[in-house]
Amino acid sequence: MGRGKTNELSPPIGFPVNAPLANGARKAALAFIFVTVLIDVIAFGVIIPVLPHLVEEFVGGNASTAAYWIGVFGTMFAAIQFFSAPIQGALSDRFGRRPVILLSCLGLGIDFIVMALAPTLAWLFVGRVFSAMFSASFTTANAYIADVTPPEQRAKSFGMVGAAFGLGFIVGPLIGGVLGDINHRLPFWFSAGLALVNFCYGLFVLPESHPKERRTPNFDWHHAKPMGGVKLLRKFPQIWGLVAVVFIANFAHYVYPSTFVLFADVAYGWKEKQAGYVLALVGVLSVIVNVILVGRVVKALGERRALLFALACGVTGFLIYGFAPTGWIFLVGMPISALWAIAGPSTMALITRQVPADAQGRIQGSLSSLVSLAGIVAPAIFASSFGFFIGPHTPVHLPGVAFLVAAALLAGAWIVAWRFTDAAHYHEAAPASAGEGEPAPTEPSLQG
């Protein structure tokens, strides 16, 4: 993707070719990118409270069978995004950012209409396949920001994208829960409208940020390979323990999208509206912890102890979730589980101490690829365990079993973190050189 500076960007429809992009136009373009990411996240969040119930309708109201299908849907979605994201990035390097971003908006809008009208489970599955392909546009959005933003302002602009994620995962489930309580198809229509309005807006506002002279002459299959970043981690054995913590913790985090909505219905009778409220509360607590508590806790405890404290909170919260006999006890576990969000920054700080400066971006990208791999496997495991323990052949009715599996995983991560970051393994100084690898400057997520 282009990294050079330019004062001229290819304009949108109605603008003269090679006209300098004024400050106002640049701000409008960045605002569009923010809105695009926000809409992608909201559109994903809106259907979280209703998709499991729609699947349940298609399988005759059987929650156990629906859980298995939700696992299939989740695994498929993550697998397609794992392969689609680097391909979209390579396409934007070859053909420009604007057509890839606009095609993503248009494709999402049409796809949500397909899902809103889906008469069978098979059609809904097809809709989710295309939704996964078109919603993997975050790579291109990040590249666009790098194209149009001066280096000294990029951190602020990337923070804007992070804010879009946080806001989207608060607003999306809230809207989806309210609309889904009226009709299960209504959230899909709402998401379709958002995406299509954004496409029309971008068609006239969004300029091209990647001029022809900076594009790759051919489609670059080398940088479109999703496993390239994961292979890079083999060069840094000193961080393997912490990499394992990142993988396990993110694996455990998939218990929420894989099981929560059906679990809340089976265990407490919470329908779409209540599930949407709770998911929005999860987002609010996550923002509070990240904005207010992370810095204070890490400063007070140090990175190692903050990591161990956060993982312990995650284990405790999941145990409460797994055994909570009533909804209010489940809610008691939420502030405790939210403190798990401290683990992400603590782990990344420890990793950066062990990696040289010339490899930081590539390591972050590699960890993002690893997190994507966790998303391919985790939904099937959590959904199938939940489905079995509420099904007719279960030895004991235990709707919270998936949360107990997640608690066991985080307990394992705690042991790895405690062992790997002790005095014998944890070094303040980073190695001198990194060598060559795959450039992929994105950041993984490790939070509850």
UniProtKB/TrEMBL annotation:
Domain (Major facilitator superfamily (MFS) profile): residue spans on this chain: 29-425
InterPro entries for this protein: MFS, MFS_dom, MFS_trans_sf, Tet-R_TetA/multi-R_MdtG-like
Bilayer topology annotation: Multi-pass membrane protein
Subcellular localization, as worded in the UniProt entry: Membrane
GO molecular function list: transmembrane transporter activity
Superkingdom: Bacteria
GO cellular component terms, A-Z: membrane
Broad class of where this protein is predominantly found: membrane
UniProt KW keywords: Membrane, Transmembrane, Transmembrane helix, Transport
Transmembrane region(s): 29-54, 66-87, 99-119, 125-146, 158-180, 186-206, 239-256, 276-294, 306-324, 330-350, 370-390, 396-417
UniProt protein name: TCR/Tet family MFS transporter
Source organism (scientific name): Pseudoluteimonas lycopersici
